[in-house]
Amino acid sequence: MTTKYAETEPRQDAVKHVGRPVDRVDGRAKTTGEARYAAEHRYPGMAHAALVHATVARGRIEAVDTEAARAVPGVIEVLTHENAPAMKPAPKTSLMNLSSLASGTTVSYLATDEVHWNGQPVAVVVAETPETARHAASLVRVAYRELPAVVDFAAEEPNASPQKSSVLQPAGGDKGDAVAALAAAPVSVDLRFTTPPEHHNAMEPHATIAVWDGDRLTVHEGTQNIAWLRAHLAQRFGIPERAVRVLSPYVGGGFGGKGFVWAGTLLAVLAARATARPVRLALTREGVYRTVGGRTPTVQRVALGADGDGDLTALIHTSVAMTARIGGMPEGVVSSSRHLYDAATIHLRQRLVRLDLLANTAMRAPGDSVGSFALESAMDELACELGIDPIELRRRNEPERNPMDGKRFTHRMLREAYEVGAERFGWRERDPRPGSMRDGRWLVGMGVATAYHPSLTMPADVTVRLAADGAVVVRCALQEIGVGAATVQAQITADELGVPLEAVRVEIGDSELPAGPGAGGSAQTAGAAAGVLDACRKLKESALALARRAPDSPLRGRRLDDLEARDGGLYHGGRGETYAAILARAGRDHLEAGGGTGMLKFLAKTLNERRRWVKAASGAHFCEVRVDRDTGEVRVSRWLGMFDVGRVINAKTAAGQLRGGIVMGIGMALTEATQVDPRTGRIMNPSLSEYHVPVHADIPRIDVHWLDEPDPTMPLGLLGIGEVGITGVAAAVANAVRHATGKRVLDLPITLDKLL
Amino acid sequence: MRVTFTVNGREESADNVWEGESLLYVLRERLGLPGSKNACEQGECGSCMVYLDGVPVCACLVAAGQAEGRQVRTVEGLAEGDRLDAVQEAFAECGAVQCGFCTPGLIVQAHDLIARVERPSDAEIREALAGNLCRCTGYEKILDAVRLAARRKAAT
Ligand code: FES
Ligand code: FES
């Protein structure tokens, strides 16, 4: 390293890494099968657990017969509410302790005879092998006294009650009198939409390995939030946080499904404690559906009024979503309607029903993905009513300031996104008359919709260590759920310190590391970047402090702000020196610095910012569909997404996030729905054969582009990209279908029966 | 029962294999080869794809006993020492890997495709990989990777 960069001959073409399509650092491990996911660790004496699921929606357990299960050779223990060790109840949620939000449900598993949903684990079998555990679990017989249960969302919808606002999420709001304005509007649409429950279906089913050593606990699990999981386990099992170690170096996809703590995790830990053995609990795909929540169903009304020119005079968006009696996350379904259009009057309401089902949870862009379907479909229908091009209608109603409250946007480029996107997609070729474009037996349609997702950050603690041999180690307990967490932070570090990318190693996925932000809310990259920038700056300051003490240093008398970090050192014009030279002279073998903001400071800053600004990632989707004239089959034949996501750190991983979001949105539009039996509350399609996620052959080439303008208020100008991709997608498909066929489908998914 | 077969060129056997046990189970749980993934156990997702006598199969659907005396090749057996196979290299390079859970199965399937078809068309690729679900990538980059691997392979 020291010979590579001569002090006197700095490379003039110092290459920056941020923005480049750098290969991910874990590519080799993942393509060779070397990467070890949660279920793939081995411990001597490890036992295996399997769950027994309740078959009633609500009731009390009258008797459990475990005799047959216990008689199976290899069964170690059958845990039920009659013999399981107690766990502490789930904590009361509080914003002062964010990890209290981690509970998937409030149920005290195996500490109660109460059944709260059809599928709740009511017994756990621990055996020498996974097959034995599963087989024995099928032999456990449970008798229930059934109680009346409310499980039918559609039937319960009229009984919804108002959703409460929180600091982070207002539930409703009014600007002027939208009801009166709608009635008076010369042109209007008033539509009722429904969206079904959905499941994440990350390819890796949830798995936990729990190992107790006295009162110390080690857990292997693919989680989106190491810090929350650790705090939650400490609280539930009554041990200090420092006695819990969570290891999560690889996570086989999450999408929100691994953001909270669900039954399988707790029961693996409980079973390990009860049997004094390391225990692995790897859920089957069905087990995931029965014990990990999914996306809420919704019913929404969007009514729009406009004058003859297409200026919105009224926007009404109301929603009903669910939570469960035992927990769940109220979604901000109408959120997009606060931000997208400059309507003269706005009326927003969110209501909730509480059901005897498994708690719902966050799934990629909660609120916005379903809300944007309704809002953006209604905008399209209004454009049809008005006889105006749907892009033109959006352009006319593009606000200068946030429509609800006049706050400023930190950054907003939707006009540009539509303009550039329309050009590249060939929107001009579109004949606006429905059903007018044909290709043999296919009816061709083109649709657009806006993508929008509010941006936030979460605090991260980061340390950066630079050794005399040039090796840099960044440490932060990030979660790698597929986004390239280590890769992008390595790029940022390499640029900030001016060192080669190969010199930087980022350690993630372990609760022993400095605490990271969760991988959720599209907030991980920006949060960690802020910590990395801070730590790198401090590290350079201490390098400079060492150099300035030396009379012969070319950096003598310089301030950090005058210097450029490049070529493995700090330079002012052509003069400067390498970190290696600085360390050698000072007789040091490394430098280390920590960065990040404390939680309280962070919250204060965030709330202060929110009072003044609105910031979001956004974009424009362009979709072309072909609908079979005779069968109603819909094929998406072209897609272009033009995004404004601030500065992009890694073109390769960013494109993957956006594209993955779009494809999940196409699934939402056309095939995905979790079917809940309205009588029993049982999920009827808990498998990949009956819940249809898009496959290669369903998906056309997906073009994604971005404008690459940094957001002035975010670290490095980056806006999170994990969720914006899915927002608006279902509407773009529905709008294209409307154009192809003249039919407006209001109920997702758009299956062929709805087009015949 | 005892089952003996060759895995990645080495003879392996497992004892006390139960009749209903899958090849995937034997590979992952008994032989310490967790490269092939378990994501559905019903032949829907392709995460568990391995070669059985040179033909890609869903290992979750193959009874372990059926592998008796046969040749199995898993994702762990595609690289030659330190040198990655062209398909592995192309996946990493093209951004076709995100969470990585679908990757081993896809790589085996793609490896087979370009061994059979020198320059597969896009439609052929999509069709061949239609049984391999990926929830992360949106598929585009996987196609790029297969095209690149096919090109490189044809060039050598
Ligand atoms: S695990 Fe074999 S196909 Fe899904
Ligand atoms: S990379 Fe995650 S499922 Fe394909």
Automatic annotation (TrEMBL), chain A:
The keyword Oxidoreductase applies. One of its GO terms (molecular function) is iron ion binding. It comes from Nonomuraea deserti. It holds the Pfam family MoCoBD_2. The keyword Hydrolase does not apply. The lineage of its organism: Bacteria, Bacillati, Actinomycetota, Actinomycetes, Streptosporangiales. PANTHER family: ALDEHYDE OXIDASE 1-RELATED (PTHR11908:SF132), XANTHINE DEHYDROGENASE (PTHR11908). Signal peptide: none annotated. This is Xanthine dehydrogenase family protein molybdopterin-binding subunit. Keywords: Molybdenum, Oxidoreductase. Residues 32-148 form the Aldehyde oxidase/xanthine dehydrogenase a/b hammerhead domain.
Automatic annotation (TrEMBL), chain B:
GO terms for molecular function: 2 iron, 2 sulfur cluster binding; metal ion binding; oxidoreductase activity. It comes from the Bacteria. Coiled coil: none annotated. InterPro entries: 2Fe-2S-bd, 2Fe-2S-bd_dom_sf, 2Fe-2S_ferredoxin-like_sf, 2Fe-2S_ferredoxin-type, 2Fe2S_fd_BS, Beta-grasp_dom_sf, Diverse_Oxidoreductases. The keyword Iron-sulfur applies. Residues 1-78 form the 2Fe-2S ferredoxin-type domain. This is (2Fe-2S)-binding protein. PANTHER family: OXIDOREDUCTASE WITH IRON-SULFUR SUBUNIT, XANTHINE DEHYDROGENASE IRON-SULFUR-BINDING SUBUNIT XDHC-RELATED. The keyword Iron-sulfur applies. Gene3D superfamilies: 3.10.20.30, [2Fe-2S]-binding domain. Keywords: 2Fe-2S, Iron, Iron-sulfur, Metal-binding, Oxidoreductase. It holds the Pfam family Fer2_2.
